Amino acid sequence: MKSRLLGGIAALVLAIIGTALLVVYVQGADARAAQGLNPVKVLVIKEAVPAGTKVEDLGAKVKLEDLPQSAVPAAALASLEEQGGKVTASALQPGEQLLTAKLVSPKELVPGTVPVPNGMEEVTFLLAPERILGGRLEAGDLVTVFSSFKTDDKGNTGLLFHDVLVTAVQKAEPDSSKTSSSPSDSAVAMPNGSAFVTVARGDAEAAKMVFSAEFGTLWFSKQTDKTNKTQPPVMTQGGLYQ
């Protein structure tokens, strides 16, 4: 009887010790996990910011957040100090981290253009309105680029690239005579001819776009922050209805 009682007490003590060790281990694991994230402070955009906004006007439009170091680029800013006199190089969207490249001297910001990202170069294409959303593309937009070729009675269309940055758009003013003057009519004025659209891309990718424009046609579709990016197969007439 006494041995059974001692055995029960020993089992209870072991259970308590085991539970305590488990709690300590879990707490230590949480601490190790938090330490592994290495949270760093970074400025994040709270509300939409137009291109050309002065740094002095950014204070109310940004907030300081702790984010895992692995998710923060080296060029992310944690403070607006030493950025005085600069302006935003392009439009900024809520949730976006503020990067040093997004702030430039007003002298560098040419109206209607955005800076070229490091490592990229610009190339310009003359495109008909129907290939650029009726001429509604603007500098700072991200587009998906498609190429289309026709040979004899056959043709094919394929996706070239996602996330192509439009750095400039040069076009004639819309033809206002082709829109209704009725206040209730929300029709958009017809574009007046083709437009020069300049994009930023690496040299190898730019070469593919030049080839497509020279021997086929290019089509741009405007992306949004919710665009689903897939890799569809090259489209041919034979596979159109499969």
Give the tags.
Type Iii Antifreeze Protein Isoform Hplc 12, 2 domains, 10 strands, 242 residues, single chain, alpha+beta, 6-stranded antiparallel sheet
Sequence stretches where pLDDT stays below 50 over 5 or more residues = none
In whole angstroms, how far apart are the ends?
81 Å
In sequence order, what are the helices and strands, one letter per element?
HEEEEEEEEHEE
Characterize the biggest β-sheet: 6 strands, antiparallel
Structural class given helices, strands, pairing? alpha+beta
The overall pLDDT average reads 82
Instruction: Specify Rg, calculated over alpha carbons.
Output: 28 Å
Total number of strands: 10
Fraction in helix: 10-25%
What's the tally of helices?
2
Apparent shape: flat
Beta-sheet strand percentage?
25-35%
Number of domains: 2
Model description:
- This protein is α+β, with helices and mostly antiparallel strands and 242 residues long.
- 20% of the residues lie in helices and 28% in strands.
- The chain is built from 2 helices and 10 strands.
- The protein is flat.
Which secondary structure elements does this structure contain, and how are they paired or packed?
Elements: H1 2-37, E1 39-45, E2 62-68, E3 87-88, E4 103-104, E5 121-127, E6 142-151, E7 154-171, E8 195-201, H2 203-215, E9 217-222, E10 235-236
Antiparallel strand pairs: 1-2, 3-4, 5-8, 6-7, 6-9, 7-8, 7-10
How do you describe this structure in short?
The chain is of the alpha+beta class.
